[in-house]
Amino acid sequence: MPDPVPSGSAPAALPSQKLVLFARGVIARLALWAALRIAVKENWGDPSSADTSSLLASEIVEAFDDLDHLPDVTDIEELLLQIMEEEFDTLLEDDSARSVAQDVLRLWDDISNGKADLLTEFETRADKIKGKDVQADQGVPSDPEEEWSESDEEEEDVPMLVDTQLQPPSERPPREEPEVDEDGFTVVKKKGKR
């Protein structure tokens, strides 16, 4: 009996059970990623920002579909960073993309070995945070010593304006009212030594 599919071409088949489980885990893990959640919630991309999460998940799953060349942590991290930059105009410097990439590879290994523990964990955690506000910290380098240089030492006396500009108005320190003398002139106060 002749082969119904000519050799050299693959049939358009449904994804394997392994890929379906992996896709569920990737979607759940991306739902836990604070950077992506913030970008989607705040509509940093176009109005269809929520669709970008699905796009990102499908890109990751597709990368694992080719069993001849499985991606490594760096490949997945670069894919995450690239899509965040292209779709949300966001450059991440917090190493969260690397953490997500490592989790994705652990998930792939788990599912490839017939385990679903990590999948269950990600889905449970994703269900718990559904509908909740995203908690984010302002960027602080993980190792401040790495970021320090001699030029930073020279600039010690320069006030850091960035911190107060990024704070919401309710968190900013109260502004001092100008002092007016009896003639109606504003008193200029000396700032101190520089």
Automatic annotation (TrEMBL):
Highest taxon of the lineage: Eukaryota
Pfam families, per the entry: WGG
Entry keywords, A to Z: rRNA processing
Keyword rRNA processing: yes
GO biological process: rRNA processing
Region (Disordered): 130-194
UniProt cross-references to InterPro entries, sorted A to Z: Pre-rRNA_process_TSR2 (IPR019398)
Composition skew (Acidic residues), residue ranges: 143-158
Protein family: Belongs to the TSR2 family.
Protein name: Pre-rRNA-processing protein TSR2
